[in-house]
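Dear all,

This email documents one entry for the complex benchmark we are building for the journal club exercise. For each entry we list the sequence lines for every component of the assembly. Then comes the predicted three-dimensional structure of the complex as a token string, followed by one or two observations. Please use this as the template for your own entries, and keep the labels exactly as they appear.
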Amino acid sequence: MGSVSLSNIRKSYGAVEVLHGINLDVADGEFTVLVGPSGCGKSTLLRSLAGLETISSGEITIDGKVVNKLHPKHRDIAMVFQNYALYPHMNVAENMGFSLKLAKVPRAEIEAKVRKAAEILDLTEMLGRKPAQLSGGQRQRVAMGRAIVRNPAVFLFDEPLSNLDAKLRVQMRSEIKELHQRLGTTIVYVTHDQIEAMTMADRIVVMKAGHVEQIGAPLELYDNPANVFVAGFIGSPAMNFLHATAKGGQCVLADGTALGPLPVPVAEGRSFTLGIRPEHFIIDQAAAPALVSLVEPTGAEIQFTAHLGGASVLVTTRDRITARVGDPIGLRVEPGRMHAFDAKTGQRIEG
Amino acid sequence: MAAVTILIGVFGCICYFFLSNIALDRLYPASGPNAGANINRANQIRPWLFMFPALALLTVYLVYPVFVSVYLSFMDAEGDSFVGMDNYIWLINDDKFRESMFNNLLWLVFVPAASTFFGLVAAAVTDRIRWGNFAKAMIFMPMAISFVGAAVIWKLVYEYRPDGQEQIGILNAVWTAMGGQAQTWLTSPVVNSFLLMIVLVWIQTGFAMVILSAALRGIPEETIEASILDGASPLQIFMKIKVPQIWGTILVVWTTITITVLKVFDIVLTMTNGQWGTQVLANLMFDWMFRGNDTGRASTAAIVIMLMVTPIMIWNIRNAAREAR
């Protein structure tokens, strides 16, 4: 059983505070992903949870037990590192069994556990090999195997896929997700890649500069971002942001183009930031006029940049449009798909 | 005078490379009808041209002496007449030679082991304490002292003064303060050999520490963090994670010190001159060469030293090459 609770976690290096009071509850068996740009404190938070860093204040609870002062080995956690951190002088089996050997588990039991983990991860053939003789994906699996044999309450992953090539990353992503479904162990996973977060997580924690920006299920974050940062960070290609003003119940762009009714009630004349995802534009020659400035077909869909209302917006469509650079095109937005954010604070304007 | 010598030497070297290069280009100009063939030929000659000074010096001072030593070891004391295996037969039956072999083996076991061990401990400890860099500088300092200088320093440490006088050697001072009788340390067999070895350990520990410290810093931090999470204690991290990862470097340090040990000479000459059972091979060779005036026997001893060093040398170079890869 591995529930994790972080309350008001603060961490300072000297006078510089890098975590400003983080609160987070992870339910038993949940797959939680901490995501954010580099330097946002997500890795520091994970390492604090593991006990590799000390926190300045706050309380870390694992499975109902406060672990602030507990040595990492007593926290009932296992961690998978970005560079795998395999012991180069030990073979795969020794790497996986090292923690059990230190804990003086009988040899037969170690062998059985290692064998079982190796079967789960499809590593049985590799048990006698040294890490240097393995490919990146295999090393990553050994690192996971090392975590699995300990049967911990919580798995911690620190950017485990960033060193793999794009194709392998997609494959390992689904392997980790399958593993989670099979073992049902709580996972806290750190990444800077929002696609990893979206595809794997039960719940995503978006962090920025030592603050939590929003916590929620992947699609919840996608559909209802709490602020401009989350809106721009989640989703690829990123959301378009336009300066708009509320006039007569319409979103009016800088050059006076009306793009449609306000998504939420906004005071007449108030300017705000309008957020529109690229795929929520609809091409409609009768709608707001725009000029195509760049066309990028990706196969499944076509991505194009257009000048709309004095700004540049990115649009993706599954239609096979024939527009070329310089052609005029009409754009409107799917009803209910516009987001309004406060122009100053960046917070979502609630209806 | 020294400045002039340096100037002539450095300038001479530059001139050699510069002028010989020009001469080669004149001989095979990179133009005209045969430009391509000339460039190829010049490129084949150029490395040899540049290596020639080094090769010549090595041949005169290293290769040639080896062959002459082998030749002399089959000749009599004056190097005039052939005596066959006589020198070798004499050597095997000589008490001083046996003593030297035994002592060399003692040195061979004790000095590399102790130096590497203390160097490893010093490297591990100095990386963890605040004044570690100062400690490192202190431990490394003896490397800058010549073997003779170090021997003189330690001779004073082991110094003996007759009863009734104040003991100026720190070893005897401590010994008498603890209620012991002042000893002439350097004349008591076996103990005195170890007292000489301590001098070399004192010098070589700094070398071992510097190399091993660099190796320890090269260990990926994540493997150490992973072992902390796996539940390893600091001692277990050191013994089971760090040391195995730098094992190759430890071997290189060990064998490098081994070669120094096989050639040890200055310390023994300065402190005991091989008396009281402290003789070693290199000093034995020196004795026969310059005191015994017997080039045959001295060369024989030299050949024995060479035969002992060569395999370790080859192994060491191979190991270092593998490390570098």
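Observations: The CA atoms of residues 123 and 213 of chain B lie 5 Å apart. Chain B touches chain A at residues 220, 222-223, 225-232, 236, 241, 244-245, 247 (CB under 8 Å).
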